[in-house]
Amino acid sequence: MDTVQWIMSVGTSFLEAIQLSNDLSHLRTSLPRARVLIDRAEWGRFKDKELEKLLLELKNTTYDSEDLLRKFDDQVLRQKMEDTNRSRAGQFISSSLNIAKGLISGSKTRVKEAQSKLDKVVAEIERMLDLMGFNVEPVQLGKQLMPETSSMITEPMVFGRDEERDKVIALLGVPPTNYRSATRTHTFIEGLTAKRMKGENSGAKLVIDDDKPCMEDPTVLPIVGIGGVGKTTLAQLVYNDSRVTTHFDVRIWVCVSDLFDKRRITKEIIQVLNQKRKETILSITTEEFYSPPSLDNLQMKLMEELMDQKFLLVLDDVWPNANQEWRGFSAPLRYGRKGSMILVTTRSLKVAEYVTTIEPVKLEGLPTDIFLEFFKKCAFGRESPESYPQLQDIGRSIVSSLCGSPLAAKTLGRLLNDNLTEQHWRGIQNNELWELSYERNDILPALQLSYLYLPQELKRCFRLCSIYPKDYSFRRDEIVDIWVSQGFVAQEGSICLEDTGNRYLDDLRSRFLFQDDPKFPGLGRYVMHDLICEMAQPVSVGECFLMQNFSYQNQRTTSHTVRHMSIESDSEAQSRLTNVTTLHHLNKLHSLRLGTRFVIEISWFSQLSNILFLSLKGCSLEKLPEGICVLNHLRCLDISESSIQEVPNKIECLCSLQVLDASCSSLRTIPEGITKLVNLRCLSLPMEASMKLSKISGLGNLSSLRNLSYFKVGTVTGRRIGELKDMSLLGGTLHIMSLVNVQSREEAAEARLVDKQYLKVLILQWRGHISLHLKSDENYVLEGLHPPSGIECLMVRGFGGHASPSWLKPENLPTLKILEFFQCCSLGCLSVEASITSADGTAAGSTGDDRLRRAVSRSSNGIARLPLIRLTSLRLVRCGSLTNVDQLLSPGYLPSLRSIELVHCESLASLPVHNFVGFVCLQDLKIHHCWKLECPREMVLPHSTQRLSIYNCGGLDRSFPGCLKNTTSLTLLDLECCPNMESIQLSSISTNNKLKYLVIRDCPELSSIGAMHALSSIYYVEISDCPKLTQVQQPFLNGSKPEDDELLEFIYS
Question: Is the pTM of this model over 0.70?
Fold first, then answer.
């Protein structure tokens, strides 16, 4: 229903409904103008305090107007949802009808008041900007995801710090060349905290020997310098230097940040020391988490851990509040071996002077010539600076204000690179921000300029991030979901809001306002540099509020204008904050984050009448209270990593909910009413709850859902596979179970899997165990489950048909990387149908993919099959009827194949093993229990082979030892139940010292393994049940199985 109809439905006259509808429309169309004005006013707020006040008032008025409009929009949605499937009479007694009447009765005045207030403050700010001469054009949001320049400034590129690095390493007592004795016994333990470590992943070696603890305070070496000058980068260079890794037994990195919490820091040090031992001192229960171990117990544990260790401890980003805690914190550190060192980075000379035991290293900005070169790379990217002589002159002027700071060079250089014109560069050079009063050597103006030049859409997103504490690690989907829930992401045609939000994030990353989190390489996690966090605070004042550090900072009363708030408390301060009754205007909040140790008051929920995002992440509640169901406007609810086991049955009342994140929580079930939340876009659940969700009737109502881990097909209405029909936005992984309940190809096609272009992983499962009762129509069902063209991983499990589907063609699956058939007992032949390609490169049904055509493997007559050029992994397990895969296992057809796994294919009689040498990318080859194999030609392996496992495979073992001649990269060799193998030559495959794991079992004819000395260089060796092998006494076991279980995982998975 439209707005007029809805207003009239509560008894309002037609004329009154028209008037109110027009007023609402007028208010809605006024908001874009107000937001543009906010963007313009921010340019002058740093100079004029009166303008700053007006700007805050305009933001507040805009928020109030948005709240009022949202109430109407959400109420229309609520009533529409309640009236669905309700009789006409039932609609008149709808519960939301009474709410609507109450809303409309007072809205006529409220809408007019909101419009008047908005018009007034807009007029005042426009008048003031005109008087000040501010005529700034709004920055348009570009379409490019990441600028070309970003690839030029890679994190490993460090300019001009070699001298400082060597100086620090020398002060740490590291000799210029340091090699450990080969006779000393080593116990290796990898150790690393993440930035929290703003640095790279690296390993640490723990060496246990007989040296005694020094019982003296370890040497403390501070690196002191202004923010952004490169203190952390220098510490990373030192920490990861090979001379340092061999000099210290163990290295630990802890990011301290602006709160020196003795308990947390001590706990993190112990976590690092225990990381690879898998000890559980911090695998604590919820009760223990909220009643953590005493500092005394932690320090006793740390003392024990450091005994006999020469350690390097890096404490990054230490602030002045550490001084009063330092002595108590450092007491256990004196039990390390003599030569142990503590490296501290800090901006504060007072901290450096207080903790140091030797002269601090004072880090200055980069030398002028080196800094200018670095700045040019940032500002010009791929362009040649010599082509812009006038810009080089302007750049030199700007460089003089950047204090030699690499961070300032990256952020401002990226801004300059947006537009290589003199007008743009001079606008930045002459900006009044440079003239404001700042502390000496402050680079804040450069960072604030980067903010001012953001498009208005990105400014709102960036400001919201100021409610997160320093070093917070953002998941990509987490931050984008929050932006979407706040309405900060603009709809662009048919593009999904999440896709647009991801582009916003990539734009902020390209401007170095976010950086990849090195704790989680390649996993889409991001952090903000400390200085970027500090810059975000003043630009979001009065709008966003981060409450933390009660122990050390004066508490401020929250402003009535605050819309986004986060409450963080350290372990000591928690007991001081018993409630938030001092926090006023909770009804104004749009966002509220509560720290993991914060005690939640249930009564607060009723006050959060405008809340859009609520985070109870990590909370101790076991049941989400019913009171949360009154939050009518809630868009995003985060209960991840919490102890919550159940949510209210009335969760369907949260009709505006778009995101429910319960990942890694204790949630066990999900109410059936979840299917009424038609706006739900993301539903992240732990395994048990996901399985319960898969059995709920009516999941097809969630047509906006972008993720569904499991769907279990039933036989009743609401559970059939057709429920997936309209869920076209599903992405990520979809596991469809119980396909045995699908009766025909036509029924299977109702799922419209082919239209789900966001899907990356598709698992099609008929049954969970081997069954003798197979259906003859399962071939037709599989034909109807045509996957989308963008699928990357396809797994078929428990399939009872005898043939692969006709849609298994390269042109249909151009991005397929992983293909698996598991427990497909009747599958007799696996062939991938492909279009025939002629000499001119044309093919019937071809996708037009140039790369596909270039990769065509041609025969002498010019006819070829299109290859699966992206397939890297082929896995065929428990396909007992499979007899032939020769057509598929062709290097020309699978040119990128890295992994082949054939297990329990008992009918497989032949393999083209002589062609395996053509798989030039092959790394893993695993063939188990294929005992009918007859290989008339010897297997030949490529140089790239790294892991090889052969177990009970008929005549395949006759290929040994010849097949190992080319294997110069082999790291794992597993040979079991090989009755025809007589010898192998370890000396020929272990000369490069790459072979780490060797397992030989039950090989009755094996009589020689070559030179025995080769065994000494292999990390783990196991030989047993080889009666003719007299070179070693059996069972022979040397070394211990690796803690990462690489051997077991590869052989037995």
Answer: yes
